[in-house]
Amino acid sequence: MATIVGAATALSASKSFDSRKLHLPSRGSLSVSERKGSFLVVRSDGSVVHKAHRAQKLITNAVATKADSSAASTASKPGHELLLFEALREGLEEEMDRDPTVCVMGEDVGHYGGSYKVTKGLATKYGDLRVLDTPIAENSFTGMGIGAAMTGLRPIVEGMNMGFLLLAFNQISNNCGMLHYTSGGQFKIPIVIRGPGGVGRQLGAEHSQRLESYFQSIPGIQMVACSTPYNAKGLMKAAIRSENPVILFEHVLLYNLKERIPDEEYVCSLEEAEMVRPGEHVTILTYSRMRYHVMQAAKTLVNKGYDPEVIDIRSLKPFDLHTIGNSVKKTHRVLIVEECMRTGGIGASLTAAITENFNDYLDAPIICLSSQDVPTPYAGTLEEWTVVQPAQIVTAVEQLCQ
């Protein structure tokens, strides 16, 4: 698993389908590379360990977790190390080189290089028209980006903080998500809306927003959340190339996460989850920063004799019910760990989707660990109380596997 540097260390579809038609993939079958058009599509790289019968015995002599398959797959290959924010910039720069219609707009994205330096140096290289500094007017420049997408450009709109995009909610909802439909297909909106969010280090309530639950109900919009430098770059490139509006969620505490990524070009799927750790006893579904809390808890769980399967869902809308369903059919127990709010959050939607499609395979009720439904306190100790911690994950798995 990629290591967190510095401060970050401490811590669907519209139609249902018949889940009985799902088949467990054989070992290694989730590692697939195929060509679509002229670019490479790299899906989640992770082997799925599976058996025909239900796992009953706990592992009694386990002493360490299994390797993070995504990190293991890239560490053994030639490549280069990047921090997550650098991986985002590299993906953005490659797409701007490849396609002259790709442009960037937002507050301080130009010569300042962005609040977290994702766009550093791009204004010098591409000029002020392709990397456009905007006034502090989210509703206006988001609408301008949507209009640019309608005329054939591929804009990337940065919200300096995801909480600020609430000021552009009307543009994102009524225009970005709906104009393709309301125009009878005359317009496409190939726009990427991205920026930092999540609970940071004492950033206060207004700067600790998790807007996944706000945007998930908007028809016509895709949502993805990056968690490693590898998938940050791959999802950025895929989002830019998509004909649909995509919201890319980045976490403020993951920008300094470092990982080795391939030198060759790759693009991640916008609709596919990532198998982080194959296991037998319980399926843990998570995304973004909580991936690292889950993997921290997994070390304790394995030493206690449990074998958790960890999946980074990545695609928040739509869910990858194929990968999730195969895991549920194997482990028969589900734990959801998220940083989003409990009421109306991603976990609530995921619980509903699993119950609707895979209820017959569950041996225990789904447990969802979410942030408390309170404004995030400024005080550091209180802030930690509002967010799921590894010890809670360990307790929840023990409860599920009783």
Describe this structure in words.
The chain is α/β, with parallel strands linked by helices. It has two domains: about 140 residues, Rossmann fold (3-Layer(aba) Sandwich); about 190 residues, Rossmann fold (3-Layer(aba) Sandwich). Helix content is about 30%, strand content about 20%. It contains 13 helices and 18 strands. It has a seven-stranded mixed β-sheet, with helices on both faces. The protein has a five-stranded mixed β-sheet with strand order 13-15-14-17-18, sandwiched between helices. A three-stranded antiparallel β-sheet has the order 1-11-4. Strand 9, helix 8 and strand 10 form a beta-alpha-beta unit. The longest helix has 15 residues. It is globular and about 60 Å long. The N terminus is likely disordered.
